[in-house]
């Protein structure tokens, strides 16, 4: 259908306004102005939201992680898992995702061409990490220069290693050559790491500034994986535009982020995933010990960030094969804030962070016709977001890509 009208739904438009019973016309892939004609699309009793946006995904980590990096899985199986995860994201109501490390440009273009089902994908390509830092999963005996042999051109490439500013400059230029639309750097240790601690800082301020300079030259930005305050402050002072995780953000750091208009994307669902079943991700059970306490600290950091007035997006950070319940991130955030706060974070605010404001994230004339029709009202029962079966209809750019009516 190129032209139709959705009638009968209660519409939560992503702006934070109260839901309203309105007709939503669609024409040529866009939300049309009120009064436009078209075939009737019956949505009686359903709740409409904008297509959800996940600002922190890892499509390239859709297989058991340790077997993947131990070369025990074929490229065919890795590809099958990546595209299955992309389709599952769409079925869960996510029409746009920002991949923060793991895929190569071929995945983005294959989905964009419609050859496989999936959301709109923005990608940083491989993550930029310092030699041996977070994002490196090679064996301790493996020489650093062999790490790039873990990449499968056009499919998956988790990270690139840089030992100094000049190497980082070369690597980010290579990432852009491969199709990256923004950059991600790891500036602290991580939860899912083999060679560092959460308290470690990685890359110097001067090194981070090199990536910021290269991104600015292409009209884009740098986001950073960061848990501790020293790493976050280094990155913010170097000019990055976004912080992922932000587990230990304190009031002075939040104030610095607010002064520089740096956004935050917390990631709660991956913490729940790892606490529930670490082995299911294909990681060693020892990782579980690193997760303990992160959920509580991230919740405290979220409250500090809200008090500071930061723009706060939403990301799941799910890894491994079990990425079918991506919407759990909204339910977890709703419990810490309100269901409407979670929805706005996953739509309008995430669109702003991704540089897609006005294009996606809201139901308004001229925006992409990306929306979800939910069975029930997830603003009254946010657990509905967690189960893809509740996303009865999913529309991406005016095309019905799922319909369980």
CATH uppermost class of the largest domain: Alpha Beta
Main sheet attributes: strand count, strand direction, barrel closure: 6 strands, mixed
Instruction: State the end-to-end CA separation.
Output: 16 Å
- Count of discrete structural domains: 2
Shape: globular
Kindly state the percentage of residues in helix. 25-40%
- What percent of residues are in strands? 15-25%
Report the count of strand segments.
21
Structural class: alpha/beta
Assembly state (oligomeric): single chain
What is the alpha-carbon Rg in Å? 20 Å
Question: Helix tally?
Answer: 12
The CATH architecture of the largest domain: Alpha-Beta Barrel
Could you name the ranges where pLDDT drops below 50 across 5 or more consecutive residues?
A: none
The average pLDDT is 95
CATH topology of the largest domain, anyone? TIM Barrel
- According to CATH, the homologous superfamily of the largest domain is Metal-dependent hydrolases
Strand numbers in spatial order across the main sheet: 3-2-7-19-20-21
Organism: Amycolatopsis dendrobii
InterPro entries: Amidohydro-rel (IPR006680), Metal-dep_hydrolase_composite (IPR011059), Metal_Hydrolase (IPR032466), Metallo-dep_Hydrolase (IPR051781), OTAase-like (IPR057744)
Keywords: Hydrolase
Domain Amidohydrolase-related: 47-401
Explain this structure to me?
- There is one protein chain.
- The protein is α/β, with parallel strands linked by helices and 405 residues long.
- It has 2 domains: 3-50 and 362-403, Urease, subunit C, domain 1 (Roll), CATH 2.30.40; 52-353, TIM Barrel.
- Helices cover 31% and strands 21% of the residues.
- Helix 5 crosses helix 6 (229-238).
- The radius of gyration is 20 Å and the shape is globular.
- The chain starts with a strand and ends with a strand.
- Keywords: Hydrolase.
